[in-house]
């Protein structure tokens, strides 16, 4: 049943999620956190194994990085399909089907005989994980809007930060007791756990009367309206370019820190965790910053700072100044700024298209992972070293700030992004 939410004070509508009892909101955040974690776990858990896979499958580093690109491409492509399906059939059915695909692909990865098969199955893994990513974002948009959505997305950024901490650490532990194929056994088990939890506890948040029935033509029209919105397109590009900087770090870090600086797999896991701490901390600070400043102001400040830190990273990497710390300190600063930007750019984008939240979230996610997918092989092509990683990280930040000011023009965005009417499904 759908109920129209009432406002708590004149001119300040309440998002439906805010009307939920505290315990239900807490449970919802936990469930969305599980869903949000599936993508990062799939991407990051096997990072410590990349050098080992390179040797075991007799491949080059750049070729092995393409398996990461395959996962990101699957995440991007899958969201373009799952988003409209979730708008037409509700959130639960596409979600559960996608997670099931992820589990099957993870099991098959265990038996992949060569790099081509592994890369193909990683694409399938990404397609399955896409359902979890896009539906989690669509559920946020179903129940929250404006600053409320930005705050919840900041909470979910905590998961995005924690998952990369845990994933390489778990991967490193698995590699101590078994070979790299064991990582995919753990991913299959994680997928099964998430599938069972969401099937049991996640409610449907899109009422039947709000589902879109236009079929393929309606989907094309929805995407057409989204592409016609200059600010929306710019904001999802900003989110994608921020993701590109993050993926450049993710794809290059194991080679930089293990091969170039001689860290062990466990030492790399701890260093990788340090970067995630910056991402986590910034995303949680964002919740407090939203009490004083608008999402667009925070986004602009974060990207400007990220550009400055990225420039310093590139200079220090080129001049071999500062050793490991010379790379880590500016790099962690960039990651912190990505942690500030990533909740705010999506929240601003999604606030413009509540009528097709699944499709809007799909295009957002596809852009994030699609642009990110380009960053991974680019690092490999440039040399799989600190300089190559720094070039792509810095380039992503520069492109993001240019897109914000040239395409989005943040001063023209409305300062009040809360919608006047919201609906909650029970």
Structural write-up:
- The chain has 426 residues and is mostly helical.
- It has one domain: Growth Hormone, Chain: A (Up-down Bundle), CATH 1.20.1250.
- It is built from 14 helices and two strands.
- The chain has helices spanning 22-44, 50-56, 61-89, 92-109, 115-143, 146-177, 181-201, 215-228, 230-260, 265-289, 295-319, 323-350, 357-382, 386-408; strands spanning 2-4, 423-425.
- It has a two-stranded antiparallel sheet with strand order 1-2.
- Helix 1 (22-44) packs antiparallel against helix 5 and helix 3 (61-89) runs antiparallel to helix 4.
- The chain is globular, with a radius of gyration of 20 Å.
- It starts with a strand and ends with a strand.
- The model is unreliable at 1-13 and 416-426 (pLDDT under 50).
- InterPro entries: Efflux_drug-R_Bcr/CmlA, MFS, MFS_dom, MFS_trans_sf, Sugar_transporter_CS.
- Keywords: Cell membrane, Membrane, Transmembrane, Transmembrane helix, Transport.
SSE order = EHHHHHHHHHHHHHHE
Name the strands of the widest sheet in spatial order.
1-2
**Could you describe the largest sheet, including whether it forms a barrel?**
2 strands, antiparallel
Average pLDDT works out at 81
The CATH topology turns out to be Growth Hormone, Chain: A
CATH superfamily: MFS general substrate transporter like domains
Number of strands: 2
Question: How many helices?
Answer: 14
Unreliable stretches covering 5 or more consecutive residues: 1-13, 416-426
Annotated CATH architecture: Up-down Bundle
- Please report the distance between the alpha carbons of the first and last residues: 5 Å
- The helicity comes to over 70%
User: What is the class in the CATH system?
Assistant: Mainly Alpha
Strand content: under 5%
* Tally of individual domains: 1
Instruction: Using the alpha-carbon principal axes, give the shape.
Output: globular
Q: Which secondary-structure class do the elements indicate?
A: mainly alpha
Main location: membrane
InterPro entries: Efflux_drug-R_Bcr/CmlA, MFS, MFS_dom, MFS_trans_sf, Sugar_transporter_CS
Family: Belongs to the major facilitator superfamily. Bcr/CmlA family.
Keywords: Cell membrane, Membrane, Transmembrane, Transmembrane helix, Transport
